[in-house]
Amino acid sequence: MPRGSCPLLFLTLILLAACLAQFRPPNSFQWFVREQVDFPKTSATNDHRYCNVMMPRWNLTTPFCKSTHTFTHAPASQPQAICGHGGTSHRCYHCDSKSGFCFTTCRVVPACMY
Fold this sequence. Notes:
Elements: H1 5-22, H2 28-36, H3 47-57, E1 68-72, H4 77-82, E2 87-91, E3 94-97, E4 103-107
């Protein structure tokens, strides 16, 4: 290797490390709250209307219609407790709740309607 390329390679590695440090995986609970929790539940006359309002509002219909999405209607502390004292852990990111809470599952039908 020519002598002049070592400082350039070192600088490239430092910049790459700095960039990668900014792209840490998101906190899974923060992602869950941002993507799933609608508390208090947005008002709608029925669940079909609710889904047809919420799916576009949360950008779940572009660039394609998401086939299924579940909205949780509980304060963030309630689902968070499931993977602590409020649930049974089975494997990484899978916990079963010891108690129930409200949710709405939206499923697409033709023409991006729910």
